[in-house]
């Protein structure tokens, strides 16, 4: 056998000079040259088809944490929630914490990191300053909640003695927003829509067809984008490129096995690439890490047809490897082989990762399906939406537990914060505004005789504070919610403070548990009838009109983020609002609640106007607040009100329309200048100072009695003296009557 095996190559070489290649293959089983060159392509495609991993990587800044997380004091703790696909095993998961510390007061400083409550890293920090960076591994167990909870704990002990003063300010830990979380998972583990939605990182990418979109497609796209932003995802809009368009490939890493296979070889080592033909586009649609990969896609007929044509062209280009490519295509880009009905939502794949395909006319129904109420029920890979409402009935209260992920139990040594963020329209269901906060808390007794204090802040406005008895039993705190404390996007913070030093230093200071109980809730029923931004947001809670010019439909990649962030700032509910497109140069008649972008409005007198790059605030020529030209990268936003209309008008200044990169906050004024980084200036062009809204008396008799009791220090002493005097007068009178009777 060995001799025969050695002689066969020699016979093949002799026959190669005398016989044709096809006859050689028949005699000796040797593949012709064409088949030999096709084998590496088939192997490369089969290797890609076998690799179904999806790798995600994002930073804290992608989650909306723009500034450093600062921990300071004797004992400070902060939990960070990192989104992962719910119930899916992870692999190669790691957190690269980027931080630094300052140690001006000396003493003992310690950093402890934990994952889901389990400590995994501890380090004692020394020196006046230095790096606190660390890389910690995260176990791969599934997270049913859809979050990895990263706990950070900072301890600073300055004194050498038990009762020393620990109030130094020089020991500080700063966690950079550049801290990164990286993990991988099997794409096949995502089997339903709820898991796919929870698996989105801090940003949510939305794919739409290229060119000019139809009205239904654009309507569905802005509603889905608003749902993503309401869920805490920063919207990234992607359009399918056409032949001749340039694509940014700076972050694309072509697998080594495909770098010698055309057209994948065209993408190696370049920053931008111009699409030459449909096969180029098809290659980008199946590559992992492709710039065309998306989390959600508006699967209208135009998008599906373009994807299918590009993948068919790529299969024809690969020739002998087409069979292997068909297998890869089914796993990496199934969106190009299916038909999605207009009212259907299904789970597909694109660029090697799961994508939620939404029918072109699903619009508000799909948005309502992905809100916090119905989302967890999507335990299927495809659904057809016939009807959906935000909730089975109009809510009269909103539980704090339903507003977002937050740990209700805290161990507090000196101070601890319970923080939850919520979108106003999404939280209230578009029915009314919060009117009162009812907070139920419980605190365990501590070693100190000083009672702990709880304080409640809404958007950094102090609503109420109270000393707790700290007996371990539930305690109630209630506070009216003033209109000026509300915004389209809100942050509620409950702060607990304890006295960390025990009586006469008989015990070592230690943390004791406190809890925000699940019965805590907002009461609904408030309203703000003013003509400022907050008044429009209140009027918009039950739905409004969104109006855009027809030019927006031809520039979806640039205009959709602008529309979504303007709608989020105005509190436009995605489910219950209508969508209108104004023709070239057309205006619309103001009625009801509305948001208009770059469309003239009739029936309302503006408080400011734009003329090219010129901004004029104040309609009276003799009393203008501002008249300036040469502005760029800004937009004028104003709240307008008439008899039957109340709305917000958004006007771009200059030849190029600006799109904010950060959320826009509108609340206390009626005219604002908005830039790339959000709201630049907010004022009241009507003359009233922003924020001078009087708190309405919505407490009723119970609230009146509570306020009287809170002011008892003012009337308690005079009342007590008067009561005592009356008592003595009654005693004297009784004595006199008794003597006279005798």
TrEMBL record:
Bilayer-crossing regions: 715-736
Keywords: Membrane, Transmembrane, Transmembrane helix
Domain of life, source organism: Bacteria
Name of the protein described by the UniProt record: Cellulose biosynthesis cyclic di-GMP-binding regulatory protein BcsB
Lineage of the organism: Bacteria, Pseudomonadati, Pseudomonadota, Alphaproteobacteria, Hyphomicrobiales
């Amino acid at each position: 056998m060995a001799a025969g095996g050695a002689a066969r190559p020699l016979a093949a070489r002799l026959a190669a000079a005398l016989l044709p290649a096809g006859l050689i293959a028949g005699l000796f089983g040797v593949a012709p040259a064409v088949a030999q060159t096709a084998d590496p392509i088939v192997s490369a495609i089969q290797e890609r088809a076998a690799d179904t991993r999806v790798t995600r990587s994002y930073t804290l800044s992608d989650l909306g944490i723009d500034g450093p997380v600062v921990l300071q004091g004797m004992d400070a703790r902060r939990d960070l929630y990192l989104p992962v696909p719910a119930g899916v095993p992870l692999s190669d998961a790691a957190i690269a914490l980027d931080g630094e510390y300052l140690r001006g007061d000396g003493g003992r400083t310690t950093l402890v990191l934990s994952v889901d409550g389990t400590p995994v890293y501890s380090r004692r920090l020394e020196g006046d300053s230095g790096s606190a960076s660390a890389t910690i591994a995260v176990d791969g167990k599934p997270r049913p909640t859809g979050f990895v909870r990263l706990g950070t704990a900072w301890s600073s002990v300055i004194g050498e003695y038990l009762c020393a003063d620990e109030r130094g300010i020089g020991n500080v830990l700063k966690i950079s927003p550049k801290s990164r979380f990286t993990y991988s998972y099997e794409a096949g583990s995502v089997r339903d829509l709820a898991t796919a939605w929870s698996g989105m990182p801090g940003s949510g990418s939305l794919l739409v067809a290229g060119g000019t979109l139809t009205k239904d497609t654009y309507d569905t796209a802005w509603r889905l984008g608003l749902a993503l932003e309401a869920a805490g995802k920063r919207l990234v809009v992607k359009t399918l490129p056409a032949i001749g368009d340039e694509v940014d490939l700076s972050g694309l890493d072509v697998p080594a096995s495909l770098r010698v296979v055309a057209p994948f070889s065209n993408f190696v080592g370049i920053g931008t690439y111009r699409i030459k033909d449909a096969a180029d586009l098809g290659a980008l649609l199946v590559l992992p890490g492709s710039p065309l990969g998306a989390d959600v896609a508006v699967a209208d007929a135009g998008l599906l047809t373009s994807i299918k044509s590009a993948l068919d062209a790529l299969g024809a280009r690969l020739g002998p490897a087409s069979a292997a490519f068909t297998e890869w295509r089914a796993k990496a880009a199934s969106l190009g082989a299916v038909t999605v009905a207009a009212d259907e939502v299904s789970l597909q794949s694109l660029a090697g990762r799961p994508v939620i395909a939404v029918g072109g006319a699903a619009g508000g129904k799909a948005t309502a399906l992905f809100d916090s109420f119905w989302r967890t029920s999507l335990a299927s890979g495809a659904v057809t939406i016939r009807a959906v409402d935000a909730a089975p009935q109009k809510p009269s209260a909103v539980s704090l537990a339903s507003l977002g992920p937050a740990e209700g139990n805290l161990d507090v040594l000196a101070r601890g914060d319970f923080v939850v963020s919520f979108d106003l329209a999404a939280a209230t269901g578009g029915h009314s505004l919060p009117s009162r906060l009812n907070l139920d808390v419980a605190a365990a007794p501590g070693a100190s005789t000083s009672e702990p204090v709880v304080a409640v802040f809404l958007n950094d406005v102090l609503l109420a504070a109270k000393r707790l008895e700290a007996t371990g039993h539930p305690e109630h705190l209630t506070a009216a919610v003033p209109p000026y404390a509300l915004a389209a996007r809100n942050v509620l913070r409950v702060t607990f403070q304890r006295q960390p030093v025990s009586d006469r230093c008989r015990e070592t200071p230690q943390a004791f548990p406190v809890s925000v109980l699940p019965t805590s809730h907002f009461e609904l029923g408030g309203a703000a009838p003013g003509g400022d931004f907050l008044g429009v947001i209140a009027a918009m809670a039950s739905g409004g009109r969104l109006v855009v010019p027809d030019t927006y439909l031809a520039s979806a990649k640039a205009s959709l983020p602008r529309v979504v962030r303007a709608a989020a700032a105005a509190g436009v509910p995605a489910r219950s609002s209508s969508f209108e497109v104004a023709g070239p140069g057309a205006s619309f008649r103001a009625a009801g609640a509305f948001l208009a972008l770059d469309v003239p409005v009739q029936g309302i007198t503006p408080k400011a106007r734009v003329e090219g790059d010129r901004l004029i605030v104040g309609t009276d020529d003799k009393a203008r607040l501002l008249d300036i030209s040469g502005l760029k990268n800004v937009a004028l936003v104003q709240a307008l009100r008439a008899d039957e209309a109340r709305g917000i008008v958004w006007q771009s200044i200059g030849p190029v329309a600006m799109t904010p990169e950060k959320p826009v906050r509108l609340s206390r004024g009626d005219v604002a200048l908005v830039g790339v980084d959000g709201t630049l200036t907010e004022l009241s062009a009507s003359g009233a100072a922003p924020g001078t809204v009087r708190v309405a008396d919505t407490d009723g008799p119970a609230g009146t009695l509570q306020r009287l009791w809170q002011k008892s220090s003012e009337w308690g002493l005079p009342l007590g003296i008067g009561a005592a005097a009356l008592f003595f007068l009654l005693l004297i009178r009784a004595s006199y009557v008794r003597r006279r009777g005798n």
